[in-house]
Structures are given as structure tokens and as C-alpha cells.
């Protein structure tokens, strides 16, 4: 089907399936921020690293399943995993210090 002037046919604006993809990436950004907070906070207080890391990891996995921007999601997942490791190491280090006292 072509119009009478010979130009291309464009679908109507309200055509089903023409909705833009979700590019907001809120979950991905939240995962990245929580990973950063978990690493920095985990250095000073281990519980912050573990809690922020677990929440960031869950949000990163959810964002990855929804197909959001892969770079930010991957960064958030990696930083969150590092935050969890830092938190665990902090607890082990604290246990060693307290057992020697």
C-alpha cells in the first residue's frame, strides 16, 4: 500500500507494538550504586558491604533479565559481588582480631 504521492507508508502513531523499549535502566543504576556503596561501606563496616552487596546483586540480576543496558548491569553485578566478598573478609578479619585479644 502506498499513498498517492508515492512516498513511503508509515504506521500510525497508535499502532500496537510501536511502543519504545524501556531504556530507563533504574534497576541497573541502583545495582551499580549499591555495589559502590557496598565496597566503600564494607571497608569500614562489614554489614554495610554484605547488605548493600546482596541487594545490589539481586537488582543487577533482575535488570539483566529485563534486558537493560548490559554495561551498567554487569558493572553493578561485579561491584556487588566484590562488596559481598569485602564484607565477608571484614567479618573474618574482625573475628581473628577479637579472638587474639
Automatic annotation (TrEMBL):
Q: Which UniProt keywords apply?
A: Membrane, Transmembrane, Transmembrane helix
Q: Is Transmembrane a UniProt keyword of this protein?
A: yes
Per its UniProt entry, which superkingdom is the organism in? Bacteria
Ranges that cross the membrane: 27-60, 72-98
Protein name as catalogued: Small-conductance mechanosensitive channel
Amino acid at each position: 500500500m502506498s499513498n498517492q504521492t508515492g512516498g513511503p507508508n508509515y504506521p500510525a502513531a497508535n499502532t500496537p507494538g510501536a511502543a519504545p523499549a524501556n531504556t530507563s535502566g533504574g534497576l541497573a543504576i541502583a545495582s551499580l550504586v549499591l555495589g559502590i556503596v557496598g565496597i566503600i561501606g564494607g571497608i569500614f563496616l562489614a554489614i554495610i558491604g554484605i547488605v548493600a552487596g546482596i541487594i545490589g546483586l539481586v537488582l543487577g540480576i533482575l535488570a539483566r533479565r529485563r534486558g537493560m543496558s548490559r554495561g551498567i548491569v554487569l558493572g553493578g553485578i561485579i561491584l556487588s559481588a566484590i562488596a559481598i566478598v569485602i564484607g565477608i573478609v571484614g567479618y573474618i578479619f574482625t573475628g581473628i582480631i577479637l579472638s587474639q585479644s
